[in-house]
Amino acid sequence: MAEELAELAAQDLAFGYDGRLILRDLTLGFQAGGLFFLVGPNGAGKSTLLALLAGLLAPTQGRVLLRGQPLSSFSPRELARLLALAPQKSTFSLPFTVAEVVAMGRRPYLGRWGRLSPRDQEKVDLALTRLGLESLAGRPITTLSGGEAQRAVIARTLAQDTPVILLDEPTASLDIHQSLGLMGLLRELAAEGRAIIVVSHDLTLAAVYAQEMVFLKKGRLVASGPLAQTLTPELLELVFEAEARVWADEFTGGLAISWRPRPNLGPSAS
Ligand code: ADP
Ligand code: MG
User: Fold this and answer.
1) What is the pLDDT along the chain (270 residues), one digit of tens a residue?
2) H or E segment and range at residue 168
3) Is the shortest distance between the CB of 46 and ligand 1 below 6 Å?
């Protein structure tokens, strides 16, 4: 039932390359107004799941529902007005300016001549400001640092102004100030009623900002649910294979985590 009420849902989803399954048995719902963190070890299938949720890959089995309708029932333009993805890596070969890249987020709204309306321009300017890109707006994207380009891609995604926003490792090349700024922004966007899904391996950020957690390991859903119920030492150890402590942190108002390696049981133990 939760999946049917969800803004975006995966139903019995499986995906594989060349017969080798990367993801299986995934049934999950992402509700409007929620800030979801999707976490798991490297290679767990997080980016693949985002690509399936965004309709960039077709599932081997199962389906993705957006507002209760299969993704395949939307035209590309309709889909792009409802759902936006900031990929983990983007490569730019053409020297578009940062402002032009961000304006590409408005493509699903443009008329036949492709001109930005004042409202489109407003959304572009707001996204540039929100990501602190004003002074870089005229720079060719090909000349930016990794973190600057990452912010431009996130700004393009926000300019798309969709009810569902997927971000793949958005803070990977950001500094702490920028990461906290982005998290505050995502929290606001969720409070506006959007469904925000963030892939991250920054569990420290997740512990403070996530409302809902989704844990993935080896292509399977291990657990999902509200932060306080799922971010437990037992589950973290199961998923990440390290010992964890979790406690309520007055300083952030969220949870805090610390880690240590599992005790080495020696070669005879395994
Ligand atoms: P994560 O984002 O959690 O680190 P990915 O979704 O990128 O994981 O990858 C999940 C698994 O799928 C990995 O084992 C990866 O090697 C494999 N994989 C990803 N892309 C391809 C591809 N194009 N062809 C074959 N295997 C792939
Ligand atoms: Mg990934």
Assistant:
1) 455 589 999 999 999 998 899 999 999 999 999 999 999 999 999 999 999 999 999 999 999 999 999 999 999 999 999 999 999 888 899 999 999 999 999 999 998 888 999 999 999 999 999 999 999 999 999 999 999 999 999 999 999 999 999 999 999 999 999 999 999 999 999 999 999 999 999 999 999 999 999 999 999 999 999 999 999 999 999 999 999 999 999 999 999 999 999 987 666 554
2) strand 164-168
3) yes
Domain boundaries, the chain: 3-202
14 - beta bridge partners? Answer: 61
Q: Is 42 in the pocket of ligand 1 (CB under 6 A)?
A: yes
How far apart are alpha carbons 212 and 230 in whole angstroms? 8
The answer to whether 3 and 26 are in contact (CB under 8 A) is no
In testing the pocket of ligand 1, which one of 13, 21, 22 has its CB within 8 Å of the most ligand atoms?
22
Q: 3-202 architecture in CATH? A: 3-Layer(aba) Sandwich (3.40)
Cβ atoms of 190 and 34 within 8 Å: the answer is yes
pTM for the full predicted model: 0.95
